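Write out the bound-state structure for nicotinamide-adenine-dinucleotide.
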Amino acid sequence: MTTFESVTRPEPVAPIGLPARREAEGAHAPGFEYDVAVVGLGYVGLPTALAYHAAGSRVLALDVSPRRLDLIRSDRADLLEGDHERLRTALDHPDFELTSDPDRLRASAAVIVCVPTPIDEHLVPDLSLLRAACAAVLDRVTPGQTLMLTSTSYVGCTDDLLVVPLTERGFVVGTDVFVAFSAERIDPGNESFGHDEVPRVVGGSTPQCEEEASRLLLRYVTDVHRVRSLAAAEMTKLLENTFRAVNIALANEFADICTSMDLNVSDVITAASTKPYGFMPFYPGPGVGGHCIPCDPHYLLWQLRGSRVAAPMITQAMTEIAARPHRVVDRVQEVLSGSGRGLTGTRVLVMGIAYKPDVADLRESPALEILAGLRARGAEVAYLDDHFDLVALPDGSTLLGLTPTGAAAFDPELVVLHTRHEGTDLAWLDPGRIVLDTTYRGADLVNGVNL
Ligand SMILES: NC(=O)c1ccc[n+]([C@@H]2O[C@H](COP(=O)([O-])OP(=O)(O)OC[C@H]3O[C@@H](n4cnc5c(N)ncnc54)[C@H](O)[C@@H]3O)[C@@H](O)[C@H]2O)c1
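---
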């Protein structure tokens, strides 16, 4: 058995930006109409399906949402430009099928599941979508198939949702069907690291499962790192995102310390980053959004609660991260009171509400809590972000976005710079307006104050 080794595919696929479709190397999976089916076509699944197609595979792309399928068919999904090109190629190609029919899964040699794994309002993992997707796959499982979970989840999830039920149905995993876990590492909106170029960690239920899954991944990624078990692969993803969460919490704490000492934390981080080893920069901000960092460590904490294992550092980091948007609201109040004003009736504009620059993704965005928190304290709030016409706030209300002209007419007394998309125009923020810079990167702001 080969363990803990890196395997490199001999020939890299076309990187993002050069999305020509390769001819398939060698034969397609015999006896199957498709080489791979991707279940869940969101931020992860759609680029994955397109990467497989660009690498020469015959792809079945499945989603339960007719709205999502419509967006994809009409090329209106939020994708990097290279992936838009891949999508246009795929939509015109006979080897790419978009479907909502799970029965088609029987026709695919491999099935990759990438559906959401959120948490509920009590920070408990919500596995309902993953359970439903796995049940749909299991109901149609065909001998010879490789089944791979890529959704982030707790340690033991692939066993619970695939291996155990398959065994109960009489399948011998590792002989009749192959089961593996390999978490996605995609960073939507990030053009610096092509999806295909990021190495993948894979664990199988048996050595043969690991072998089949590595082969499946190496159809489009350049490197695969194999680990000893499904559990090790699941835990690797939890470590990656918990590492980010803890370090972001530390960066936030350092930012507050620097502010108290009248130091610029960005200068300090830049200076520390000159150390070529033993330091990796993390940046403070208004909180953390997206589907990963605010959620994934809770999968681990939830599991640890059950086994009475304490994880005080992770718990503290997640508490701090969750509290960060409230700190922004407090700071707005503090800054205003410094100039003799309160929040009641004050016009506050939040600029950029996506959870990170250059994506149209609002999931868990701190901006939503900040807007609701400011409004709850009496401020008149508005936002400017041309990615979103309308948003629903956590307090149940909705808010319409302003155009740049509308924002100027709103005449905010304070602006919260939350997300700085490429090309964000700050020129209209004349020196008479206070700008609370939650990005800590607004060195060019005339009247900026740090969070
Ligand atoms: N978004 C990221 O940056 C990112 C990065 C790495 C890993 N992940 C992980 O990848 C997984 C997927 O996340 P995402 O951001 O792509 O989610 P998403 O919300 O963007 O998309 C998920 C898609 O799955 C579809 N879906 C839900 N249930 C389904 C079912 N039973 N059958 C078929 N389709 C179904 C939904 O309609 C939706 O289109 C999560 O576990 C997440 O933690 C996400």
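---
Confidence is low (pLDDT under 50) at residues 1-19.
The longest helix spans residues 230-260.
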